[in-house]
Amino acid sequence: AEEILGAIYDREWERVKELDQKGAEPDKIFTREASVKRLVAKISLPMVAIDAISARIHKLRDEQLQYQVNELIEGFSKMWKLVIECHRKQLQGVEQAAHVASVKIRETSCFKATGKLREKILNWAACFEHYIQTQKAFVKLLNEWLQRCIYHEPEEDGEGNVPVSPSRIGAPALFIVCNDWCNAIADICEDGVHQAILGFASCLDELQQKRKEEQRQRRKTLGLLKEFEKQVRNASEMYTPGE
After folding, report:
1. Which of 52, 171, 180, 192 could form a disulfide with 166 if both were Cys (CB 3.0 to 4.6 A apart)?
2. Could you list the residue ranges forming a coiled coil in this record (predicted)?
3. Do 131 and 239 fall within a single domain?
4. Domain check: are 15 and 122 in the same one?
């Protein structure tokens, strides 16, 4: 609607200038000018509404969105600190458990526990990767959405356009924080952690397969031992003196 009104305004203003240049009667020029002034009023009203909406958006951005983003970042920071502390305590538990590794455990229970642990570890690896990727995607989308609200002249270097830097162009704090957050989280590589978790699951699988093989060999050995004892008894009975 504003573009249509703007086009009409330009056309009417050109007509006013043409009438003035051709020496038209004052009444005709006055009528055209009055028409142009009415168009200006119609255009001004939407502009006032746009300014009011823009001011409201800026207020929401600075008073609410920035506060929520700061809380979110603080929440993530606390969460990862708790995760680190949790893993530290788990490591202590594993080290302490190593001292009681000689306690006899039923083989069946051991196999089931190892299998369940491996399943949990694999699920943890999948959830970890999904969580990190989701967090990265969220921060990237938030930053891209905010940068669409920044008006700036594109900068170019020898290789093309330079990515917009909110701090360089003096953007509000929210834009700077989200851009720095996006760059920081993009530099984090979770592949090492993910592969380490999968490696642990693989070790559990190898351990379980090794124990299964040991159990099979034990059963085989016991079977051979029993067969050997049976043959010894039979031989003893056959060659007993006095018979």
Report:
1. 171
2. 204-231
3. yes
4. no
Average pLDDT, the chain: 78
CA triple 99-102-104, angle to 5 deg: 135
For the CA atoms of 4, 7, 13, 14, the dihedral, rounded to the nearest 10 degrees, stands at -150
CB 125 within 8 A of CB 198: yes
Do 129 and 33 share a structural domain? no
Whether residues 154 and 201 fall in one domain: yes
Q: Which pLDDT score is estimated for 10? A: 66
Based on the fold, state whether residues 165 and 115 are members of the same structural domain: yes
Cα–Cα distances in Å, from 119 out to 89, 112, 158, 198?
21, 11, 52, 11
Per-residue pLDDT of the chain (243 residues; tens, 9 = 90+): 455 555 665 666 677 667 666 666 666 666 766 776 766 666 666 667 777 887 888 888 888 888 899 999 999 899 989 988 998 998 888 777 766 555 555 556 677 888 888 899 899 889 988 999 999 999 999 999 888 877 666 666 556 556 677 777 778 888 889 999 999 888 888 888 888 888 988 888 888 888 778 778 888 888 888 877 777 777 777 766 555
Which range of residues forms the domain containing residue 49? Answer: 1-75
Residue 15 lies in a domain: yes
Same domain, 155 and 62: no
Give the residue from 186, 190, 191, 189 showing the smallest Cα distance to 143. 186
Q: Give the angle 192-193-195 at the CA atoms, nearest 5°.
A: 65
| Domain count of the fold of the chain | 2
Residue in the block written with tokens 């506060």: 67
